[in-house]
UniProtKB/TrEMBL annotation:
Pfam families in the cross-refs: HMG-CoA_red
Domain of life: Archaea
InterPro entries xref list: HMG_CoA_Rdtase, HMG_CoA_Rdtase_cat_sf, HMG_CoA_Rdtase_CS, HMG_CoA_Rdtase_eu_arc, HMG_CoA_Rdtase_NAD(P)-bd_sf, HMG_CoA_Rdtase_sub-bd_dom_sf
EC number: 1.1.1.34
Keywords (A to Z) from UniProt: NADP, Oxidoreductase
Uppermost EC category: oxidoreductase
Pathway: Metabolic intermediate biosynthesis; (R)-mevalonate biosynthesis; (R)-mevalonate from acetyl-CoA: step 3/3
SUPFAM superfamilies: NAD-binding domain of HMG-CoA reductase, Substrate-binding domain of HMG-CoA reductase
Lineage of the organism: Archaea, Methanobacteriati, Methanobacteriota, Stenosarchaea group, Halobacteria
Family: Belongs to the HMG-CoA reductase family.
GO molecular function: hydroxymethylglutaryl-CoA reductase (NADPH) activity
Protein's name in the database: 3-hydroxy-3-methylglutaryl coenzyme A reductase
Amino acid sequence: MSQPTPADLATRVRDGDLRFHELEDHADADAATAARRLLVAEATDADLDPLGEYAFDAEAVHGSNIENTLGGVQVPVGVAGPVTVDGGADSAERYLPLATTEGALVASINRGCSAIEAGGGATARVTKSGMTRAPVFRVAGVAEAEALVAWVQDNEPALAEAAESTTSHGELLDVTPYVVGNNVFLRFRYDTKDAMGMNMATIATREACDAVEAETDASLVALSGNLCSDKKPAAINAVEGRGRSVVADATIPREVVEDRLRTTPEAVAELNTRKNLVGSAKAGALGFNAHVANAVAAMFLATGQDEAQVVEGANAITTAETTDDGDLYVSVSLASLEVGTVGGGTKLPTQQASLEILGVAGGGDPAGSNADALAESIAVCALAGELNLLAALGSRHLSSAHEELGR
């Protein structure tokens, strides 16, 4: 029996024989995707042919990565570097893949990489790791909240056993209780190895919550109580971290700052203090940086990360000071960088290619090392971007660079 064509499928939807989201039940994913394009183009009078050009397997992404598939969106990918990364997970000369539509961004980061490389490269370390999920429970009052906290502290091994029964990779690291009136939040933190691990943490925490309800008087209200805190700017992530907390730094010789960046170490240090620290404080910002979100977003898109988590990944502090030798020391500390090299969007072919450029595709040996190396690379990318933007402001070249490259 021949497979229905996209036009046949579209007709059946128009006639009410099929529902829009059921197309894959009656045809292969490519035909279903093409049928949706026909229907949406007809309804909106939009040209959707460009969405039909994509390199992934429609069958593989439908359901696991996306629903009601129309096709794919192409974002240009550039590369910055090479830049030497002395990392805790791996040390190598790396090219940094960046997916963006913002002119001047790749050139900006590339210029920063050049200055860092001239100074001998950058150092990066993951200082803390753990994906969190924080359910909220309802209790009768403060006394019952105290009892629940005590029970959790006494029974953390039992909670770990319940949580870890759902995964062969995840490991419960700790559970931190927070009490607000008759609300008790339990912030579970997991080692998720090379996976970003949000789904893993959610499923594991659900199992642990069943144990809490079975053994205490607490009632689960929501599996996520927003104290996690996922995809929202939050001070708890800035202080306690989420995903991977990673720091990168470099020392740039004075002559490199003057010759390549057209400014001085003193000017960059003053700019950082007045702009990134004082200006951010006055604005009430959670991040104290120039544009870390640019580097994080571009590398997230290139490597298949969850783009909504850029809001936490950009929660960063940039520092700059002149050394005793008159050189420039710069650092960037990203508190909550949520990345993985397996699962999610990392398995798509173009994203796999970017991970392969970095040498971190798939699971690492030991487990978690590839995701650590990815985090270190993103931190160095952010450092290069911060260095260049501060230098461009110091030399008053920012607007001219955007006039030349960003239009």
